[in-house]
Specification:
Pathway: Porphyrin-containing compound metabolism; protoporphyrin-IX biosynthesis; coproporphyrinogen-III from 5-aminolevulinate: step 2/4. InterPro entries: HemC, Porphobilin_deaminase_cofac_BS, Porphobilin_deaminase_N, Porphobilinogen_deaminase_C, Porphobilinogen_deaminase_C_sf. Tetrapolymerization of the monopyrrole PBG into the hydroxymethylbilane pre-uroporphyrinogen in several discrete steps. By secondary structure, this protein is of the alpha+beta class. The chain has three domains: 106 residues, D-Maltodextrin-Binding Protein, domain 2, CATH 3.40.190.10; 83 residues, 3-Layer(aba) Sandwich (D-Maltodextrin-Binding Protein, domain 2), CATH 3.40.190; 89 residues, 2-Layer Sandwich (Double Stranded RNA Binding Domain), CATH 3.30.160. Helix content is 33%, strand content 20%. It has a five-stranded mixed beta sheet with strand order 5-4-6-3-7, sandwiched between helices. It has a three-stranded antiparallel beta sheet with strand order 1-8-2, sandwiched between helices. It has a three-stranded antiparallel beta sheet with strand order 9-10-11. Strand 4, helix 4 and strand 5 form a beta-alpha-beta unit. The radius of gyration is 19 Å and the shape is globular.
Length: 292
């Protein structure tokens, strides 16, 4: 809702239009178990897709990292804008009042909460002694469980904290983020040219090119919601786009990695090359070893 309100405010500023925010609770929001039980991250999209297709809503706002890469999007819909990317980093937070300041300070066997297998795989490579446990829910509920003492630390996306206006000390982790981290995808019906033209005012070319490279890599790998796949693209001072990709086993003991650079306008080709290189190095076996 915070993300939708932010996009709505920006549209009002750019085009002097009336925008109503329509809240939709998805099956992914309602379900408290593992997302795999609902078929993965698509559980956050199905009801919103239906609202767009039936005209209940004209524009939808998604976290790009929650858009599956192995399931095609409805052809009637289009991502008309990727606003400028927010911080893509993961941050580790500690209970309020804790003397612990960073992951290195955590005691052996400390309990760390996260819902992402990608984070778990990378955390246990650094600290195999940690107990990394499954944690879902909105940001407020996760922070409550942290501060109650249920966890010694939790890992969240920096972008989500920023969008919610939560300024809380924590350690920015040097792990590779998820594909699409920090990126919002603003979607509308392809046939509604007036709405699409309005939404395109929000589009940020560099973010679109980086997102395109990352998504092409994800599509090439055909990973599911339980796949520990990480990928991040950036355009450097030299004007070239660099994409890093990694695939892990669930316990982080094995990994394959790839990195390629090229012209930004060829980002999707770059993503396909990185995916192909990862597959040559054995990524398919690592992905298929983890149940959906």
């Amino acid at each position: 809702m915070a993300q939708a309100r932010g996009v709505a405010a920006r549209l009002r500023e750019l085009a002097d239009v009336t925008v109503e925010v329509v809240g939709i609770q998805t099956s992914g929001d309602r379900h408290r178990g593992h997302l795999g039980e609902l078929g993965g991250k698509g559980a956050f999209l199905r009801e919103i897709d239906r609202a767009l297709l039936t005209g209940r809503a004209d524009v939808a706002v998604h976290c790009l990292k929650d858009v599956p890469g192995d399931v095609p999007r409805p052809g009637e819909l289009v991502f008309a804008a990727y606003p400028e990317r927010d911080d893509a980093a993961d941050v580790m937070l500690f209970p309020a009042g804790s003397k612990v300041q960073c992951m290195a300070d955590l005691a052996p066997g400390a309990r760390v909460g996260t819902s992402a297998v990608r984070r778990r795989a990378q955390l246990v490579r650094v600290r195999p002694d940690l107990q990394v446990e499954y944690l879902r829910g909105n940001v407020d509920s996760r922070l409550e469980r942290l501060d109650s003492g249920e966890f010694d630390a939790i890992v969240l996306a920096r972008a989500g904290l920023t969008r919610l206006g939560i300024d809380r000390p924590g350690e920015t982790l040097g792990i590779l983020p998820a594909v699409g981290s920090g990126v919002l995808a603003v979607e509308c019906r392809r046939a509604d040219s007036d709405v699409a033209d309005l939404v395109r005012l929000l589009d940020h070319r560099e973010t679109r090119r980086c997102a395109g490279a990352e998504r092409a890599m994800l599509h090439g790998l055909q990973g599911h919601c339980n796949s520990p796949i990480a990928g991040h693209a950036r355009i450097g001072r030299d004007g070239r786009l660099t994409l890093r990709g990694m695939v892990f086993t669930q316990d982080g003991t094995r990994l394959v990695r790839s990195e390629e650079s090229g012209p930004p306008e060829k980002g999707e080709d770059l993503g396909a090359r990185v995916a192909a290189d990862l597959l040559r190095k054995g990524a398919r076996d690592l992905i298929d070893a983890i149940p959906h």
